[in-house]
Fold these 3 entries.
Entry 1:
Amino acid sequence: MRNGLAHGNHRTNDDQYSPPMPPKGVRRMWEGGPLRQFSDTQVSSHYVGYSGPILKGYAGSYVCDRCQRPCAGVYPSHPSETQREWLCGGCRKLGGKP
């Protein structure tokens, strides 16, 4: 990070970090659960049928709360009692810091 700018030239404020809004077609699997690509139709062969108590349709890759990139899996990271995040392996290796 140089001059308060992180990769992608987005301003950061270490005291009040909030992850960016998830991209369209990405939904939280349950309240406090991980983000996942989701569609009402099977948009590619890697989307699998999903039927849960909240969502029904086709689920794709998981999405990291921090970097907002699709990934094979996410890990729960709870930096505080009120803040819950699901991080990809790369963000987890960075210590879960923004």
Entry 2:
Amino acid sequence: MANCNICGEKISRWHRAQTQPHFINVHPDYLKWYVHYLNRILIIGLIVVVAILNLDIYLISKYGYATLYPLVLLLAYGVVIRIVLFKNLRRFRLAWDKTHPLQQ
């Protein structure tokens, strides 16, 4: 069992967020945002990976080797998506705490 990141209720680890009954019934606004967030990550992530691949190909053709610069871009992308996730989780948690003050 795991705890919900928003309200702390015990939930199953074996469901993805999109099929988790708790999120469907208790946090539908979070679930809608999360599905949109995952779609955005996949699309932007694909663009980032293609850009990094092209940059690697260019660097190899120009200098004969690839530098660490593309890896830094990939790491920066990972950091940004985690910051966005945690910022929005905090927003949903604060909204939940305001509407459910007795369940803290």
Entry 3:
Amino acid sequence: MEEIIEKVIEIDNKAKRFTRQAEDRKEGADKYIQAQRILIKSESDKTLANDLANEQKRLDMQTKAKLMQAEKQEAAELDRLDKFYEQNKARLVAQVFNEVLK
């Protein structure tokens, strides 16, 4: 009987050791998974920040190009209006004068 009790105690101790080992492995796996999550998030954040910076540069360059184009168009339109005025100022002045006298 005593031998049976010792065997049962031995089996119980082995089961407890096995359970502790499994819990330790699970804890190690949980820590590893958490560390991997942090690493992946960090890498993802860096990639996202880099992508955003590149997109911002692209948009800045695109905006600058559009602004330069608009400035060229505005300058061309102002030149056209200046030429029109210079070519037609006598007629325009006379026209305004006649309108005022009416």
